[in-house]
Write a structure and sequence with these properties.
The complex is a heterodimer of chains A (618) and B (351).
Chain A: E1 8-9, E2 11-19, H1 24-37, E3 42-47, E4 56-64, E5 77-80, H2 86-91, E6 98-102, E7 117-121, H3 123-130, H4 134-152, H5 157-167, H6 172-192, E8 199-200, E9 211-214, H7 215-225, E10 230-233, H8 240-253, E11 265-268, H9 272-284, E12 289-293, H10 295-300, H11 302-311, E13 315-321, H12 338-342, E14 352-354, H13 359-376, E15 379-385, H14 386-390, E16 392-395, H15 414-418, E17 450-452, H16 466-484, E18 491-493, E19 501-505, H17 510-522, E20 528-531, E21 534-535, H18 539-546, E22 550-555, H19 561-570, E23 577-581, H20 590-604
Parallel strand pairs in A: 1-8, 2-5, 5-6, 6-7, 10-11, 10-12, 12-13, 13-15, 14-15, 19-20, 19-22, 22-23
Antiparallel strand pairs in A: 2-4, 3-4, 9-16, 14-21, 18-20
Chain B: H1 38-52, E1 60-64, H2 68-71, E2 81-84, H3 90-100, E3 105-111, H4 112-117, H5 120-129, E4 133-139, E5 142-143, E6 149-150, H6 173-180, E7 184-189, H7 193-204, E8 209-215, H8 231-237, E9 238-240, E10 242-247, E11 262-266, E12 272-277, H9 287-299, E13 303-310, H10 317-321, H11 333-336, H12 339-349
Parallel strand pairs in B: 1-2, 1-3, 3-4, 4-8, 7-8, 9-13
Antiparallel strand pairs in B: 5-6, 7-13, 10-12, 11-12
Helix pairs in contact in B: 1-7, 3-5
Classes of the chains: A alpha/beta (618), B alpha/beta (351).
Chain lengths: 618, 351
């Protein structure tokens, strides 16, 4: 019995299996962008090795007119360009799916499957006939398969052609050569294959004003808009492109038009310790400074985080999380640095965390982090991850209010010092736990103080007196409470029907959670959801938990780190918070979340519909 | 060590510098180091140097790591902001501070444990990066605060107070600074203020990474027979290559020297270094020669002191980074934020 071929328009997943270093990335991106140009949303994702050349890499494009941007799972069509991974790639195709491959060399029937449609194009033979140069043969082979896919999926050739024209504007030779390769693949497919197949792209109007950018670029841009002038950094996957982006946007926006000089300073440090040290030195001296790193860097910076916390120095840290612990899975995604950031360093420390859900928030929250860091005089962590950091994604366009002014926090000025205002560096004048500070060089004879990580009295004098220590710790606690209302508020999404079940999630889980909510609702399971955007948790977060019988906490780590923070900071009964954990390094999917929640509710025999019962579901 | 507060009254005829400040205005809190500690002499030399150079105290930022030496910034320049950071990491914190405001003078104070052991990486990279700073290592060969363990600058074969012989090879920070690109490298002795004060003055007026290794005996844990960092040992083995006078641009040069005995170096800011020959014929502009001289003399058991190397044509980190003249920490919103129009144009490019 033959399996019917999958028939889907504007709703499918196509995966490209490539060898890294083969130049496939830009061809694959061209394919994804051509679909966006047709008004159909896509969510592309790179799955790549920690290597420069020769190892397998995949590019997954989810086409979704409905606008679901989370990973879906499964694969409707495989473009199998890597002989190394052929067997697993062929096995990964859903029943009734499609296999596209280079048919130059004949393969035995055992290498294929009965239940899929096989589409062969002799790409190597065609390239060898067309090009003499080895690199050209390689690069244009990629363009050629994109051309063939355009024909097979019934896409608009003109959309892809226009992208090439836009990308290589002014370089006519390059445009001609690329369009030619695209055309060769397109024509071959039209003449030799059953175009179009069951998977199709049809022009729609579902993209709107959205932009396409990766989160790391957005963080770099956010740092420029947020007023960062100093960046100390050390290369580490997957955060490196944050600084590359900051650097390129600084060149664009922060080069003095009169003399070409830089209104910024970026220093590649010798290690993560030095990079955070520079950030702290610059923050102490009144510049907005940041670093970008990932888990191993966070571990190395711990001692300095404690200094910045205790000496109360503003700093912004963009942590693009990856698979951990140790070197872990450097090129896979996770949300596993929450605890090592929230309580970073020895002793009683607590830090402010922000959780962007996409590139749009990578921009806005990074910019906001600098205001928070100066207002609170403390390190602020922007916890991005590899999934949103390194993948281009559709997101709302960036916004900036020109009337906004940087909040430099409580700075005591020359005039105030001159007028004789009392200055106690660690004195809680306003009752919010935030003291006043002076910047070095402010006044010739007043306001200088000695910054140290050792205990001191409110006037910054060295002290080993217990009451001075306790005063300081209690003030720091007050300051942390003040932060509750300064971090971005959580986003509540109410279910269509009253329910006593809630879901808490954060960061890159957002698109999968939105889709999972819709999936569950379609099955009659209604859940209210709350997207947490900052730590310390605001009262709203605790109220959301208090008002529900059971709350699922969806995370991409093994030990339920946000759940731990909720239990610890909110004194929540652990039984009330149900773990939904995904941590194999791939981005979480709606299928996974919806399945776990449905199963758990089924096991507990809890009806999620109706008024809250005000009792713990266990 | 004294437990008495410094008297507030000042003699009416206390000398004042061009800014009208007395030496007292450059002092700090009472030292809590051991009586006779070499570090206190270095603090006094820093006070003297800043007083002599008419430096506005609030235009200096003093930074340190952790250890006895790193405590000292509390004991001088009380009107300057200070930062006692974490162990071995003063160079990175100072680098960040210097990035934020290029107009202050940066004084980094460290010890041999802080710079040669835990912080050798940061020491090395601050030197090679060209941070415009005066980097003073108060070098006593031991960990004082933890009671006398050898540090990485302790000479091989030297004896600890408890009688242990050091078997590890020493790190010579001045030699490393030369190799790593410091453009002002000196060594001195806390017991020789006449030599040390001008070396600090020259370093403060130098426009690049200036490093001074100051042998500073630890009276409590490393001042015994068998130590090579004791007062007696250093006095006996001190081999100065020159004597320095620092002449400010506006000052009249009164000193007169015998012909051929003087080398004159003009620094970026116009200050003039007068180097008087002492004994050997030594060329402080020859970096490789300086490295050779250090090694040769060290092999003979001598401690070479003086201004070992100076290059007044070097560029500092800000020149490498091509940063604007105005300190980065003083740039207003309008200079930093590209604004909504630029963002809209960017949005359009990302569609």
């Amino acid at each position: 019995m033959t399996t019917p071929a999958i028939q889907h328009t504007n709703d499918f997943v196509i995966k490209f299996a490539n060898v890294n270093g083969s130049g496939s990335a830009s061809a694959n991106e061209l394919f994804a962008r051509a679909i966006i140009r047709m008004g159909v949303p896509v969510a592309p994702r790179n799955i790549f090795p920690s290597n420069i050349q020769g190892l397998p890499t995949w590019y997954e494009v989810r086409v979704s007119e409905a606008g679901w941007l989370g990973a879906r799972g499964g694969c409707d069509m495989m473009v199998a360009m890597n002989p190394q991974t052929w067997d697993r790639d062929v096995a990964a195709i859903d029943r009734g799916g499609y296999l596209f491959y280079d048919s130059t060399k004949p393969l035995p029937p055992s290498k294929f499957r009965e239940d899929i449609t096989v589409l062969g194009v002799p790409l190597t033979a065609m390239c060898n006939a067309e090009y003499d140069d080895a690199r050209q043969r390689q690069l244009f082979k990629n363009s050629m398969y994109v051309g063939a896919l355009i024909a097979l999926l019934d896409m608009e050739f003109a959309a892809a052609e226009q992208l090439i024209v836009d990308r290589y504007r002014g370089k006519d030779q390059l445009i001609k050569a690329n369009v030619n390769a695209l055309r060769l693949g397109y024509d071959y497919a039209r003449q030799n294959l059953p175009c179009p197949i069951g998977l199709r792209v049809k022009r729609a109007d579902a993209v709107g004003e959205r932009i396409m950018i990766d989160g790391n670029s957005a963080c770099g841009l956010g740092a420029v808009f947020g007023g960062a002038t100093v960046a100390g950094w050390y290369p580490i996957t997957p955060s490196t492109s944050v600084i590359e982006s900051f650097s390129s946007y600084c060149r664009k926006f922060r080069t003095d038009p009169d003399n070409g000089r830089a209104r910024y300073a970026i220093v590649q440090a010798e290690d993560e310790l030095a990079s955070i040290g520079m950030v702290i030195g610059a923050g102490w001296n009144g510049a907005r400074a940041f670093t970008a790193t990932s888990g191993p860097g966070i571990s190395l910076m711990q001692e300095f985080f404690g200094l910045a916390y205790f000496a109360e120095i503003p700093a912004v840290i963009v942590d693009v999380q990856r698979g951990s612990p140790s070197t872990g899975m450097p090129t896979r995604t996770q949300q596993s640095d929450l605890l090592s950031c929230a309580y970073a360093s020895h002793g009683d420390t607590r830090h402010v965390l922000l959780f962007p859900q996409d590139a749009h928030e990578c921009f806005s929250l990074t910019a906001q982090a600098f205001d928070l860091a100066e207002r609170l005089q403390t390190p602020v962590f922007v916890l991005s991850d590899l999934d949103i950091g390194m993948n281009e994604q559709l997101c709302a366009p960036f916004e900036w209010d020109d009337s906004r002014r940087y909040d430099r926090g409580k700075l005591m000025s020359y005039d105030e010092l001159e007028a004789g205002k009392d200055f106690g560096r660690y004195l809680d004048v306003d009752g919010d736990g935030i003291p006043y500070r002076t910047i070095p060089g402010t006044h010739p004879t007043k306001g200088a103080y000695f910054t140290r990580g050792t205990t001191r009295n409110p006037y910054a004098k060295y002290s080993e007196v217990g009451t001075d220590y306790v005063y300081n710790m209690e003030r720091l606690r007050r300051k942390f409470n003040t932060a509750k209302d300064l971090v971005p508020a959580p986003i509540l999404t109410k279910a269509a029907q009253p329910t006593h079940v809630g879901v808490i999630y954060y960061g890159s889980t957002a698109p999968a959670m939105a889709e999972a909510g819709a999936k569950l609702a379609a099955d009659g399971i209604h859940v209210d959801t709350l997207r947490v955007r900052g730590f310390p948790f605001s009262d709203e977060v605790m109220q959301f938990i208090a008002d529900r019988d059971a709350v699922f906490v969806v995370e991409q780590n093994e030990s339920a780190q946000l759940r731990t923070l909720l239990i610890n900071e909110g004194e929540i009964d652990p039984k009330k918070l149900v773990r939904v954990l995904h941590y194999d390094g791939s981005p979480i999917t709606a299928r996974f979340i919806a399945g776990k929640i449905a199963d758990a509710l089924n096991d507990r025999k809890v009806s999620p519909i109706g008024q809250p019962q005000r009792k713990v579901a266990s | 060590m004294t437990y008495l507060a410094k008297p507030k009254l000042l003699a009416a005829d206390a000398p004042r510098n061009a800014l009208g400040y007395t030496r007292r205005d450059y002092e700090g809190a009472i030292s809590t180091l051991c009586a006779g500690c070499g570090h206190d002499s270095i603090s006094a030399s820093i006070v003297q140097a800043c007083f002599d150079l008419d430096i506005e105290p609030h235009k200096v930022a003093k930074l340190s790591g952790i250890g006895c030496s790193s405590k000292t910034p509390d004991y001088f320049l009380g009107n300057s902001h200070g930062f006692n950071s974490v162990h071995g990491r003063m160079p990175s914190v100072l680098t960040g501070a210097a990035l934020a405001n290029r107009n202050l003078l940066y004084l980094g104070v460290s010890g041999d444990g802080d710079s040669a052991s835990i912080g050798i990486g940061q020491f090395a990279h601050a030197m090679r990066r060209g941070v415009n700073m005066t980097y003073i290592v108060e070098n006593n060969g031991v960990y004082g605060l933890t009671k006398g363990q050898f540090s990485a600058t302790a000479d091989k074969g030297s004896k600890s107070k408890k009688g242990v012989i050091n078997s590890d090879n020493p790190i010579d920070l001045a030699a490393l600074a030369l190799q790593l690109g410091a453009t002002y490298v000196a060594r001195s002795f806390s017991g020789d203020k006449e030599q040390l004060v001008p070396l600090i003055k020259g370093a403060l007026r130098h426009g690049g990474p200036a490093f001074i290794d100051v042998i500073s005996p630890c009276v409590t844990f490393n001042n015994h027979a068998g130590s090579t960092k004791s007062y007696d040992y250093v006095r006996e083995h001190n081999a100065a290559v020159n004597r320095l006078d620092v002449i400010l641009p506006k000052a009249q040069i009164e000193a007169s020297y015998p012909p051929g005995s003087l080398r004159r170096v003009v620094q970026h800011d116009g200050s003039i270094l007068h180097l008087r020959k002492v004994g050997v014929d030594y060329d402080p502009s020859d970096r490789i020669g300086a490295m050779n001289h250090l090694q040769e003399r060290q092999a003979l058991g001598e401690i070479v002191t003086g201004l070992l190397y100076v290059d007044s044509s070097g560029q500092d980190m800000h020149a490498h980074l091509n940063t604007v003249e105005k300190p980065l920490n003083q740039l207003g919103d309008a200079y930093l934020c590209p604004g909504s129009k630029a963002l809209e144009a960017l949005n359009a490019m990302l569609r």
